[in-house]
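Lecture notes, unit on protein representations.

Consider one protein chain, 422 amino acids long.
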Amino acid sequence: MTHRPAGEPPRAVRPHPGGEDTAWDDGRPPESAAVDPAVLTALLHRHGWQRRGGAPGRYGRWTPPGPAAGATSLLVPVSRAFPDSEDLLGEALLALSRSGTPAAREILVSLAVPSDEIRWTRDVPAGPGGAASWTAEEQLRAAARRMLLAGALATRARAGYFGARHRRAAAAALENVLVGTAPGGRRLTAFVPAGTGRPLSVRLHQALYAAREAVDYRRATGGMDAFDAAVGAGVSHELTEALVALVRGTQGAQIAVDWAPGAGVPEGCGALAEAVEFSPGDLPALREAAARYLRAEPSVPVRLTGTVVRMRRSGPRGTGTVRLRVLAGADVPHVRITLDEEAYRIAGHAHLVGLPVRVLGRLESRGGFRRLTGACEIAPVQVDDAERDRLLKAVQEHVEVAAFFEETCGGDCDGEDGEDGD
């Protein structure tokens, strides 16, 4: 067993989200009663630990990879069938918590709450001491986050280009994901809670294989048809852009998904899926696909309900631009609409009395689905007094609307004149 030098405090680790009492925090290992020996064994094997003997059918002796193999060993029971199983588990978990290796930390995180592990590896030139440059590590983190976001978007809908659509829900899906780095800045691991994030892991896993097949088809035949079909598997402009960011400036990159042992293998997925690899030679196809998705995604007819948060026009009369905070009708936070004089007046009056408006139009893909074109049938939406007061208060407290009142109303607001800036 390894022991921490006297006087050295334990390494504090942020608890894994999930709400369970077994969460690993403050450097303390998970409770042995909450750990399945089979899961611990599977995680040790996944992270390169080697079994070096032990009583058959009772326990195994495991040693870590690398130089620490001769100084550290864990006795892990095969099951809880023997009286000393609980003690062996507790000692093994304590030794892991005192180990300074990234692999031990990752094993403890996965034990705290069952997590699918998504691992990115970039082949970049090593600096002094084998470390990657600051820029390279930042690029890895940014590309990994973009890829997770693309996977989360694909769980919400199938689209070649999402833009602003579903972005709030996708970003919320990443809140419980933890990240662990490896020495050298060339590897990054995301721990996605299997209980809440399994759809994200599965969709990203499927999308990466579909993207790999589409790139191979493009390079072999020159055709882009496979990228069109890959949208159904979760490939999108956002995912191809994330892959470009991951591979650019490297000699190659890999993405691997390992399922949480305690949660089992999801339906339709292999238990031992190989890492998906991309190389600099794939970049032209990925860039072409990203541009193709951006051009091809059609506009969407919608009927939106939202509150006016900004109004602008160049003079006291004529057309103007209105920004709505969307309440219903589309999964985007805000849209911009150009309205004729009468519709602009209706929007202004609705804003001043604290009512939302409903408007029909087409949500344009160009610009990221942030603009509504062909707007018509704009009308205030009647709400009860309590909801009206809530909406009015929320809008008035918004910093953009404060600018609206200052610049547009000028202390004697009639809802028609004036403008504000972006």
